[in-house]
Amino acid sequence: MEPGFCEFDRVFTVNFGEIKKGSVIVFKSGREYFIKRVKDLKSDGVVAVSDNKALAKKVYEVKRVDIIGRVFLKY
Hints:
This protein is an all-beta fold. It has one domain (11-74): SH3 type barrels. It is built from no helices and 6 strands. It has strands spanning 11-14, 24-29, 32-42, 45-49, 60-63, 67-74. A 6-stranded antiparallel β-sheet has the order 1-6-2-3-4-5, with no helix packed on it. A hairpin with a 2-residue loop joins β2 (24-29) and β3. The mean pLDDT is 92.
């Protein structure tokens, strides 16, 4: 998610409210956690991509159950 988020940045997430296009979310895939931006909404989840142009071609289809929360604050 560089340049907006870098490795070892800390974020505060909330799991209430609505996830919209453009929201930044944290989700779990296997044993890893990812921070990605929501590109599209689906009935059972979201489609997320990276802000990093080198990684933007990879698309993540994330189920709602795997979403930890929406990024509210970076510190």
